[in-house]
């Protein structure tokens, strides 16, 4: 089997990259370890920056998002009974789109199918070879049979645990990591959301987030210890804890119901540099992870896709490799800005086992945010997404 760009991983990064390349006449094959149903059962991000929403529209995949997604002009930050409304449109003239990652992925799969894109599901034992030569290739097994995929380039869109990053020799890769001593317990429920906008709540009991997928589907999170298991959290315990961490009027309004999905995600900050080894490029979670507090994970994957697809398209049009050489540095600049913002928002709003001095400094940071329009504009500018270049 032969293609121009072999894409490992059929999550949002791999699918969007494949769609953008296909539209520019570049051939791809996607190798995905899981079944499509499994990929579509993962409940993850919900907030799309304008950059990602625009890319979906340009790729012909924005129609359902524009119909069913919700444009949010602001968000609320609360701390006990202090409330702060951040009006994105007023502060920085931009908005975000609330539309679930599951739906983005579903739309991308449909678009790839409509264009007869090749996606091989349940590809096992995917391995990368000769990535630092002009003729890299990928091997995998499917239904017990071994296959070889020759290509010009490999895009490693295979998430944090995939084989692409691991194929880079250890002495060529530098890793930066911060693991937080807590996770987020997330619940999806068929209940009307407590608020039209997201509420990020800092509280002495720990962080909580009220998000949504639609007018009838809510997504809520509470900070839990890294040791906690989903089984420790009955629905009743979850709702009680969420209420305790929200401002009183929101707690009073909250409609509870049975959870239809419940999971715990650990929080970490992680960056691997560089994002290139020879003719292999890392994209999205395979190269970097942010804690979800700033809603940046999926959006960063999308800016990587933008930079890499632009560089590959330019290579196939002109033969020039300059943009491919610059990919890692260009992507990493934006990644580190998002790492900074996600770390800052996580630190500001979560409960840590910290010294009394640090607690006071955090209170002062919140006080500054509540009282300074410049601080609010800085939050808004980062939240709606920094420019792609
Ligand atoms: P993905 O979505 O992890 O997709 C990678 C794909 O690669 C496949 N794969 C392989 N394929 C072939 N061979 C192998 N050996 C393979 N190993 C893995 C996987 O099956 C998968 O289909 O990475 P991608 O495309 O870069 O997209 C990134 C986003 O998914 C991610 O940044 C966000 O979802 C992060 N994230 C969240 N971001 C937010 O902004 N808000 C959230 O609420 C939020 N919640 C989350 C999250 C990530 C989570 N992870 C990674 C465990 C919750 C969780 C649980
Ligand atoms: C979500 O809706 O899942 C979501 C929204 C905002 C975040 C994280 C997760 O910061």
From TrEMBL:
<keyword id="KW-0560">Oxidoreductase</keyword>
<dbReference type="Pfam" id="PF01494">
    <property type="entry name" value="FAD_binding_3"/>
</dbReference>
<protein>
    <submittedName>
        <fullName>p-hydroxybenzoate 3-monooxygenase</fullName>
        <ecNumber>1.14.13.2</ecNumber>
    </submittedName>
</protein>
<dbReference type="InterPro" id="IPR002938">
    <property type="entry name" value="FAD-bd"/>
</dbReference>
<dbReference type="GO" id="GO:0071949">
    <property type="term" value="F:FAD binding"/>
</dbReference>
<keyword id="KW-0274">FAD</keyword>
<dbReference type="InterPro" id="IPR012733">
    <property type="entry name" value="HB_mOase"/>
</dbReference>
<dbReference type="GO" id="GO:0043639">
    <property type="term" value="P:benzoate catabolic process"/>
</dbReference>
<keyword id="KW-0285">Flavoprotein</keyword>
<feature type="domain" description="FAD-binding">
    <location>
        <begin position="2"/>
        <end position="342"/>
    </location>
</feature>
<dbReference type="InterPro" id="IPR036188">
    <property type="entry name" value="FAD/NAD-bd_sf"/>
</dbReference>
<dbReference type="InterPro" id="IPR050641">
    <property type="entry name" value="RIFMO-like"/>
</dbReference>
<dbReference type="GO" id="GO:0018659">
    <property type="term" value="F:4-hydroxybenzoate 3-monooxygenase activity"/>
</dbReference>
């Amino acid at each position: 089997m032969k293609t121009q760009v072999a894409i490992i991983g059929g999550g949002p990064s791999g699918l969007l990259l494949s769609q953008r390349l296909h539209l520019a006449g570049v051939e791809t094959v996607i190798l995905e370890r899981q079944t499509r149903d499994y990929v579509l059962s993962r409940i993850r991000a919900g907030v799309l920056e304008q950059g990602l929403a625009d890319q979906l529209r340009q790729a012909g995949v924005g129609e359902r998002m524009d119909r069913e997604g919700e444009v949010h002009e602001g968000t609320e930050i609360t701390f006990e009974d202090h409330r702060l409304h951040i009006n994105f449109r007023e502060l920085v003239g931009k908005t975000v789109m609330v539309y679930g990652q599951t739906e983005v992925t579903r739309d991308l799969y449909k678009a790839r199918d409509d264009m007869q894109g090749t996606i091989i599901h349940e590809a096992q034992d995917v391995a990368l070879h000769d990535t630092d030569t002009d003729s890299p290739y990928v091997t995998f097994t499917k239904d017990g049979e071994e296959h070889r995929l020759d290509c010009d380039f490999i895009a490693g869109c295979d998430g944090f645990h995939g084989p692409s990053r691991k194929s880079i020799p250890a002495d060529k890769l530098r890793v930066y990591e911060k693991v937080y001593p807590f996770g987020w317990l997330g619940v999806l429920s068929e209940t009307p959301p407590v608020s039209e906008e997201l509420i990020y709540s800092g509280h002495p009991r720990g962080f909580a987030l009220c998000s949504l997928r639609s007018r009838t589907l809510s997504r809520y999170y509470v900070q839990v210890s890294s040791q906690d298991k989903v089984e420790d959290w009955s629905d009743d315990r979850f709702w009680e804890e969420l209420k305790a961490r929200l401002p009183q009027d929101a707690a009073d309004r909250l409609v509870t119901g049975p959870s239809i999905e419940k999971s715990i995600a650990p929080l970490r900050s992680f960056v691997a540099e560089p994002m290139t080894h020879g003719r292999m490029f890392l994209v999205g979670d395979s190269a970097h992870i942010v804690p979800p507090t700033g809603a940046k994970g999926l959006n960063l994957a999308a800016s990587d896709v933008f930079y890499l697809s632009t560089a590959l398209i330019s290579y196939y049009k002109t033969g020039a490799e300059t943009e491919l050489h610059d990919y890692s540095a260009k992507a990493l600049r934006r990644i580190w800005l998002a790492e900074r913002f996600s770390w800052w928002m996580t630190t500001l709003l979560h409960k840590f086992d910290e010294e009394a001095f640090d607690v006071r400094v955090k209170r002062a940071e919140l006080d500054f945010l509540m009282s300074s329009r410049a601080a609010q504009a800085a939050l808004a500018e980062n939240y709606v997404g920094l420019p792609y270049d």
